[in-house]
């Protein structure tokens, strides 16, 4: 985890724009939309991490991204699945960080 990785400038701007637009939209949209928009905003970051990651990182990120997209797709028909994913995701990420530190 000590390798330096840098987003391309266009990637960084897209992520920046997404998060700022999400914050602004949160002032006029129903509150439950903000979480969805935040999750959507992680996809370009995950894609950049997959592109530049080592094989182990890519495999974990690809699985995480697939699970994220499945949870997003199920959000309307199975809100519980989406919420379970969100509740479990921080722990999954923390375990991966610990694994990478070993």
Give a brief outline of the structure.
The protein has 102 residues and is mostly helical. The chain is 81% helix and 0% strand.
Quaternary arrangement of the chains shown?
single chain
What's the overall average pLDDT, rounded?
86
Largest beta sheet, briefly?
A: none
Shape: globular
What's the number of extended β-strand segments? Answer: 0
The class by helix and strand makeup works out as: mainly alpha
Q: What percent of the residues sit in helical stretches (DSSP H or I)?
A: over 70%
**H/E element string?**
HHHH
User: Low-confidence segments, ≥5 residues, pLDDT <50?
Assistant: none
Describe the structure.
This protein is an all-alpha fold. The protein has one domain. It has four helices and no strands. The protein has helices at 9-26, 31-52, 55-74, 79-101. The chain is globular and about 40 Å long. The relative contact order is 0.10.
Write the layout of secondary structure elements.
Elements: H1 9-26, H2 31-52, H3 55-74, H4 79-101
Helix pairs in contact: 1-2, 2-3, 3-4
């Amino acid at each position: 985890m000590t390798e330096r990785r840098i987003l391309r400038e266009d990637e960084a701007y897209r992520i920046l724009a997404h998060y700022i637009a999400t914050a602004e939209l949160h002032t006029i949209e129903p509150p439950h939309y903000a979480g969805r928009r935040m999750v959507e905003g992680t996809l370009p970051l995950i894609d950049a991490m997959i592109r530049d990651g080592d094989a182990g990182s890519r495999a974990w990120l690809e699985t995480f991204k697939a699970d994220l997209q499945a949870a997003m797709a199920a959000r309307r028909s199975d809100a519980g699945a989406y919420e379970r994913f969100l509740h479990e995701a921080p722990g999954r990420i923390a375990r991966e960080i610990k694994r990478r530190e070993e």
